[in-house]
């Protein structure tokens, strides 16, 4: 006859089982709370990213601006063709200047995605909107920006900033430098603008 093995582990007591269940429940609730807080943010960021990419693809499939297709970004101001005029350091003017009182609201000439709201050496405070055909619309020498940020969608006529003299225009009469870049090259905006 062999001796019986009575070395079975003792059964957990009721209190230890309840404590184990309670700990698991607290951990599960904590995880649910974290997921509840994170998922809407992650979902919103994902939706925003997908929407921005869809808008970019949609814009690229459209035609770039054509002759007389763009409204004046400063509707009450006259237009003059200042393209190609001499500038400092042997440069030529790659846009047109539209003079207006300081603080005059600047309207986007096109629908598109804001790709830059910031500063550079020549333009000072600038806004860049990428519109149909991937054309870049460059607004420079701003006094201030409207309430816009990179990746925002704007429509033609939306306010994007205010006329000033920032950058290398400091001390000149306030004006907007408006430039258009198609396939990375500057093109004369004047023929593309609607003349009133």
What is the topological layout?
Blueprint (H helix, E strand, L loop, with lengths): L13 H48 L34 E4 L5 E3 L4 E9 L3 E7 L5 E10 L7 E2 L4 E5 L11 E8 L2 E3 L9
Keywords: Membrane, Transmembrane, Transmembrane helix
Organism: Psychrobacter alimentarius
Protein name: Peptidase M23/M37
Notes on the structure:
This protein is an alpha+beta fold. Helices cover 24% and strands 26% of the residues. The protein has one helix spanning 14-61; strands at residues 96-99, 105-107, 112-120, 124-130, 136-145, 153-154, 159-163, 175-182, 185-187. Strands 1, 2, 3, 4, 5, 6, 7, 8 and 9 form a 9-stranded antiparallel β-sheet that branches. The chain crosses the membrane at residues 14-35.
Summarize the structure.
Pfam families: Peptidase_M23. This protein is α+β, with helices and mostly antiparallel strands and 196 residues long.
Entry keywords:
196 residues, Glucose Permease (Domain IIA), 9 strands, 24% helix
Report the order of strands and helices.
Answer: HEEEEEEEEE
Biggest β-sheet, characterized? 9 strands, antiparallel
CATH topology of the largest domain: Glucose Permease (Domain IIA)
Uncertain spans, ≥5 residues at pLDDT below 50?
none
Number of helices: 1
Q: Assign the structural class, choosing from mainly alpha, mainly beta, alpha/beta, alpha+beta, or little secondary structure.
A: alpha+beta
Average pLDDT score: 87
Beta-strand residue percentage: 25-35%
- Strand elements, count: 9
Helical coverage, percent range: 10-25%
Question: How far apart, in Å, are the first and last alpha carbons?
Answer: 114 Å
The gross shape turns out to be elongated
In the CATH scheme, the class of the largest domain would be Mainly Beta
Instruction: Determine the oligomeric state from the structure.
Output: single chain
What's the number of structural domains?
Answer: 2
Organism: Psychrobacter alimentarius
Protein name: Peptidase M23/M37
InterPro entries: Cell_wall_metabolism_enzyme, Dup_hybrid_motif, M23ase_b-sheet_dom
Domain M23ase beta-sheet core: 92-189
